Amino acid sequence: MEVVSKIADLKARVAAFKASGKTVGLVPTMGALHNGHASLVKRSVSENDVTVVSVFVNPTQFNDKNDLANYPRTFEADRDLLAGLGATLMFAPTADEVYPEPDTRSFSYPPTDTVMEGAFRPGHFNGVCQIVSKLFAFVEPDRSYFGEKDFQQIAVIRAMAAEHFPSLTICPCPIVREDDGLALSSRNTLLTPAERQIAPAIFKALSRSIAFSKQHSVAETKQSVIDEINSVDGLEVQYYEIVDAIALRSVTDWNEAEHIQGCITVFCGHTPIRLIDNINYK
């Protein structure tokens, strides 16, 4: 595996692969890689001749400077993991390389990018679209892989890709969880041992709500999840929305959409660490 930090070098390497007829998969990440990321890389390696993995903590998608400063960075471990997984190129640029000047582009895909995370983190999805669109332009991949833990992010990226990169296939990949159900996340490394003990209560409440939903309304199901999680000392639900899994509009009836997803964000601990998860109802 080769590590490149310059856009020109990345483009040159990929162009050479494409000239020989090879297919290219892209896995965008912000580093601090775990088994969830590994599952994306493995799938790309299995479906493409070449796999490019970007490792870049993108400043434009953080609306909290402390969150950006505290985001875990583990370059050496990331490099070693990717080499062992069979990745072809690791793209690890500096912020100045990616943003030699401010990116003033604006992306808008309501309601997909204005609800849930979009409402609580203004500008977040615009920053996501800025960096992901840059990566798509740099690499021009055939396929790009994203984890379903960031369910709303995939919906926004699909909309952006449909507008600007119509020939690109977006490949969602299932959430990878710890044995106790906690969704793998780079932020999990920031949890104290005590916080790590209580964090699995999020998925337990979501899981229990599936059976509950069979006999109760959307509103009752939503409230039961919020109440169960908030009853755990150290956990506080920021939002829980039950939505149409395609449009991400809130639903009030289980028959309102063919596919329905529950999407949650929970503050864990006193710092606090912000954890997200989701579950499918139908």
Task: Give an overview of the whole structure.
The chain is of the alpha/beta class and 282 residues long. The chain has 2 domains: 2-173, Rossmann fold (3-Layer(aba) Sandwich); 186-280, Pantoate-beta-alanine ligase, C-terminal domain (Pantoate--beta-alanine Ligase, Chain: A,domain 2). It is 40% helix and 20% strand. It has helices spanning 7-19, 35-47, 65-70, 75-85, 95-98, 117-120, 124-139, 151-164, 193-198, 201-213, 218-230; strands spanning 2-4, 24-29, 50-55, 89-91, 143-147, 169-173, 235-244, 260-268, 273-280. The strands form 2 sheets. A 6-stranded parallel sheet has the order 1-4-3-2-5-6, with helices on both faces. Helix 2 links the parallel strand 2 (24-29) and strand 3 (50-55). Helix 7 (124-139) crosses helix 8 and helix 10 (201-213) runs antiparallel to helix 11. The protein is globular. The N and C termini lie far apart (41 Å). The model has no long low-confidence stretch (mean pLDDT 97).
Short description:
This protein has 282 residues and is α/β, with parallel strands linked by helices. It has helices at 7-19, 35-47, 65-70, 75-85, 95-98, 117-120, 124-139, 151-164, 193-198, 201-213, 218-230, and strands spanning 2-4, 24-29, 50-55, 89-91, 143-147, 169-173, 235-244, 260-268, 273-280. It has a six-stranded parallel β-sheet with strand order 1-4-3-2-5-6, with helices on both faces.
Q: How are strands sequenced across the largest beta sheet?
A: 1-4-3-2-5-6
Number of strands: 9
- The end-to-end span amounts to 41 Å
CATH topology of the largest domain: Rossmann fold
Q: Poorly predicted ranges (pLDDT <50, ≥5 residues)? A: none
Number of domains: 2
**Name of the CATH architecture of the largest domain:** 3-Layer(aba) Sandwich
Amount of beta strand: 15-25%
Give the class from helix and strand content and strand pairing: alpha/beta
Q: Overall 3D geometry?
A: globular
- Class of the largest domain in CATH? Alpha Beta
User: What is the share of helical residues?
Assistant: 40-55%
- Radius of gyration, CA atoms, in whole angstroms: 19 Å
Identify the CATH homologous superfamily of the largest domain: HUPs
The biggest beta sheet is recorded as: 6 strands, parallel
Number of helices: 11
Taken in chain order, the helices and strands follow as EHEHEHHEHHHEHEHHHEEE
